[in-house]
Amino acid sequence: MRLILLGPPGAGKGTQAQRLVERHRIVQLSTGDMLRAAVAAETEVGLKAKDIMASGGLVPDDVVIGIISDRIEQPDAANGFILDGFPRTVPQAEALDNLLKSKGLKLDAAIELRVNESALLQRVEARVAQMTERGETVRIDDTPEVLSKRLAAYRASTEPLVHYYSEKRKLITIDGMMSIEEVTLEINRVLAAIADSDASATKAVRKSAKKKSPVKRESLVRPAKKAAKKAAKAPVKKAKAAKATGKTVKKAVKKVAKKAVKAPGKSAKAASRGKTAKSAKKTVKKAVSKAKKPAKAVKKTAKKRAKR
Ligand code: ADP
Fold first, then answer.
1. pLDDT per residue over 216-240, tens digit each?
2. Could you tell me the distance, in angstroms and rounded to a whole number, from the CA of residue 61 to the centre of ligand 1?
3. Is 85 in the pocket of ligand 1 (CB under 6 A)?
4. Residue 150 catalytic?
5. What average pLDDT does range 21-49 have in this prediction?
6. In CA terms, which of 77, 89, 239, 273 is 20 to 30 Å from 153?
7. Distance in angstroms between the alpha carbons of the first and the last residue of the chain
8. Measured CA distances, 193 to 113, 163, 210, 221, 255 (Å)
């Protein structure tokens, strides 16, 4: 599994990265940690980065791209990795795309932890207090002044990546204001849905290769997934119509997923009670009827489910 964690300083990237490392047995590659190590070791990179980091600015793209491409080559990253703090700019994201492409690897998801800015200062202050208590060295950029500069750098250079990965259909947005536990659960839930949908898509592709009929990728939300699955299985009369339906269903599913994120804390519980399922059904039904020539199976399933 290859993941990216996006979010401002204090969003909880480090905490969630550690949990993902344990769960998926992948490595965490944190450019911040690597740069701090380089600074401590007074390497050439460290000397270049030291003052920039202390002031809250961004280290030049070529420097971080260099360290990441070296790091990804290491054998321990072969099973997958989670990038924490990289990419931080669009050129870094493009460099990562090229790097992965050249190695024949694909990115599974970019996870954005969305948080209220007002909470960040408090979180960073709490982190400083905990580190001091544990007798650890506090980061010199964890001060209110530098934090505001780091936040400004995030807004200007890193936030555009949310759009970048959304365009590539890789973006997962998680409400980072929930508790650590809830955030972890939500990330795991969405990643499991992705893995699920990838597995069934592969199955469907294999099946359709036999039938020689076009198949589209499934949605990520379970209730809509079934409908899409049926559609993929049903003999598709017109490839164009099916494609249009698939796209619209996907859009609808995205909408539902977004809604779930907007309702912090509620989503998991609501989903288990079937509330999310209900709204997914509705949205899918809407989307399907919007499509000019919907695949019959999608319509049928959506109707059936709405009746229940
Ligand atoms: P945080 O995410 O909490 O802001 P990090 O530990 O990820 O902190 O990074 C600390 C500092 O290291 C950043 O403020 C920046 O100066 C530098 N840095 C880390 N990653 C990158 C990157 N990908 N590109 C440029 N600078 C980086």
1. 333 343 333 444 444 444 444 334 4
2. 11
3. yes
4. yes
5. 95
6. 77
7. 37
8. 18, 22, 26, 7, 16
Q: What is the mean pLDDT of residues 288-302?
A: 45
Q: What are the structure tokens assigned to 35, written together? A: 């740069």
169 is catalytic: no
Among 29, 31, 127, the mutation site with the greatest number of ligand 1 atoms within 8 A of its Cβ is 31
Which tokens in the block code for residue 55?
Answer: 């002031």
Residue 269 has pLDDT above 50, yes or no: no
Band of pLDDT at residue 25, cut at 50, 70 and 90: very high
| Nearest-atom index, ligand 1, CA of 92 | 23
* Annotated catalytic residue 25: no
The yes-or-no answer on residue 278 being catalytic is no
Query: What would the mean pLDDT of 23-30 be, rounded to a whole number?
Result: 94
Question: Tens digit of pLDDT for each residue in 149-205?
Answer: 999 999 999 999 999 999 999 999 999 999 999 999 999 999 999 888 878 877 777
pLDDT of 250 strictly over 60: no
Angle at 216 between CA 212 and CA 218, to 5 degrees: 135
Q: Establish whether residue 12 lines the binding site of ligand 1, counting it when its CB lies within 6 angstroms of any ligand atom.
A: no
Answer whether 56 contacts ligand 1 (Cβ < 6 A).
yes
User: Residues 2, 36, 50, 88: which is the catalytic one?
Assistant: 88
For residue 87, give the ligand 1 atom closest to its CA. Answer: 23
